[in-house]
Amino acid sequence: MTENVHTPEDVSQARERLMSVRGEVAKVVVGQDAAVSGLLVALLCRGHVLMEGVPGVAKTLLVRTLAGALSVDTKRVQFTPDLMPGDITGSMVIDSQAGELSFREGPLFTNLLLADEINRTPPKTQSALLEAMEEGQVSVDGVSRTLPRPFLVAATQNPVEYEGTYPLPEAQLDRFLLKVILPLPEREAELEILRRHATGFDPRDVAGAGVRAVAGPEDILAGQRGVAAVQVSPEVSGYIVDIARATRSSPSLSLGVSPRGSTALLHAARAWAWLSGRDFVTPDDVKVLAHATLAHRLGLRPEAELDGTDVNQVLASALGSVPVPR
To answer: How far is CA 133 from the centre of its chain?
Structure first.
């Protein structure tokens, strides 16, 4: 199979179309621009996103609307304590017509998978999902099956104080490119949500709200090639490494950023630079993505938790301690 070749014009047009996705999503989802940008960055990096927020802040609607604007397939899985790995990967079933075993695809066979409340399901099922994220394939009965491209998992988790949750181990959290927090809306944004519902908005009918497909899978693939061409100077690479090293020496942290984390920050900053219309990464690109890329990879020491220390404060302190290259 030949690799698609994208000209500079294709890549530039892909950027314009992907940027217009934000406007389409805003027709339905109010006040979550940062989350939309995070999902676009993850698609361009072939990464995955952990979304955290209390129930009712439009996590499901956001993913469904993004899929509509990108003209890609989407599925949703509600993770529960009794969910088995085969429920998401698919399984072998007997074909009643032919009397033979055949593979029935699970919901992982899609472009955008919303894995809802991933921390409500047992570790065995969590690991099946994370294997698919890492490998881009699933193995059932010893046979590996490739997942569609593009493929992005947007996994939601409830804040850890909620009952009945299985916290994701650090090694699994590290597999997510970004963690995006969906905050409760400001008063004006919430008034706008109510106004839309009062005038007949149906969250199950995204197309009815005027959302159009303004980009497609080809634009994502062209964008991925564009991102791969973004240059990173030795000074900016050094800046990223020094940020990671500053977290490892923080007295408040038991777990600092691993080399996988610094690599993730490099990829995310390149995607942000490309979306911003540049073919080089600036220190500001690194700073913009640092919290979303690194905060979920950090572990607080128990004594720091007891003192009420916040991971984001520690990360901000580490960022502030590293000289910014000129």
So the answer is: 11
Strand order in the sheet with 178-181: 74-78, 112-116, 152-157, 49-52, 178-181
Using only the alpha carbons of the chain, give its radius of gyration: 20
Look-up: residue for tokens 């104080």?
161
**Phi, psi for residue 254 in degrees, rounded to 5:** -90, -20
What distance lies between CA 319 and its chain's CA centroid?
A: 23
**What is the model's pTM?**
0.88
| Separation between Cα atoms, residue 204 and residue 112, nearest integer Å | 17
The string of pLDDT tens digits covering residues 218-240 is 999 999 999 999 999 999 999 99
Among candidates 60, 76, 74, which has minimal Cα distance to 28? Answer: 60
C-alpha span between 136 and 46 (Å, rounded):
10
Pairwise CA distance, residues 105 & 175, whole Å: 24
Reported as half-sphere exposure (CB side, CA atoms, 13 A), residue 176 has a value of 31
Quick: pLDDT tens for 131-173: 888 888 888 888 888 999 999 999 988 765 555 566 677 777 8
Q: How far is CA 216 from the centre of its chain?
A: 18
